[in-house]
Amino acid sequence: MLATETITIQVTPEVAKAFRSASESERKKMELLLNLRLLEVTRTRKPLEQVMREVSRSAKERGLTEKILQDLFRD
Length: 75
Known about the structure:
- The chain is mainly α.
- Helices cover 69% and strands 0% of the residues.
- The protein has one domain (13-74).
C-alpha cells in the first residue's frame, strides 16, 4: 500500500456532499483519481490551463458528459 498524507482542498458544496455521501469504495476511487490528476499537473511542464483542457477533451472523447458527471456525483 502506498503511503499517503491528508491535505485540505476547497471544493464546491455539491462536490463535498457527493464525496461525503459516496460509499467507502467510491471515495477511494475518487481519491485515487484526484491523486493521479494532481500528480500529472505537478509533474508536467505544461501550463495548468492546457492540462485542464486536455483532461476535459479526453473525458469528452471517452463519452463523459456533464449529465453523466452530475449523475455520478448524485449517486
